[in-house]
Amino acid sequence: MPRKLYTLCGTDKARPFSPHVWKTKLSLAHKGLAFDIAPVGFTEIPKLEEGATKIVPLLRDGEKLVKDSFEIALYLEQAYPERATLFGGEGGKAMARFVEGWSQMTLHPVIGRIAIMDIHDSLDPVDQAYFRRSREERFGQSLEEIAEAGRSDIKAFSTKLEPLRHMLKAQPFLGGDRPLFADYIVFGALQWARIISPHRLLAAGDVVFDWFERCLDLHDGLGRSVTAA
């Protein structure tokens, strides 16, 4: 049975935009594992695999179902130890946990505000209604008010990347000479922004821009297989 990766998409099923899905796509490619894509909208997720998840990515690998990008990476490392490592040992797992926390607490909220109307506008009508209702309940503001706050985040976004910038001055990837899952975590966030929003958050000449370009080229240019917004 071929592996199947359920991915979040809008109206255009060829443009998966979830940062967590992109972590998993690169993880599978890193391991050299073939997989098929199954694009779904927000409101389709609870119906997947007899209600197996409320989130994507969701990976079916034979009889095994795994959800959550970090749990999928841990599963792949355990199930395919003979293939290229995603963590490089226990220290790499601990580092990836820290990077994930930093990315989700620092980068994701800002990108979410900047791109919130772009995300909404990319969805099918049924998913637009769900997205507006759920996000406005979560934030206590209209999407338009959230987007207005996001405009002020664009110029300041570069400062959020200082820890990454500091590290990349000494090495080409967070993993050192080669990428590890920690790289895919941050790449997923920035790929999300690249695919869903026309706002350009990285400037040429920045070491983070150069790192992101290297990540786009990984695994036969998997990241570039979806063009920028």
TrEMBL record:
Domain Glutathione S-transferase UstS-like C-terminal span(s) in chain numbering: 94-198
One Pfam family named in its UniProt record: GST_C_7
Domain of life the protein comes from: Bacteria
Domain GST N-terminal residues, every copy: 16-83
InterPro entries recorded: Glutathione-S-Trfase_C_sf (IPR036282), Glutathione_S-Trfase_N (IPR004045), GST_UstS-like_C (IPR054416), Thioredoxin-like_sf (IPR036249)
Protein name, per record: Glutathione S-transferase family protein
Origin organism lineage: Bacteria, Pseudomonadati, Pseudomonadota, Alphaproteobacteria, Hyphomicrobiales
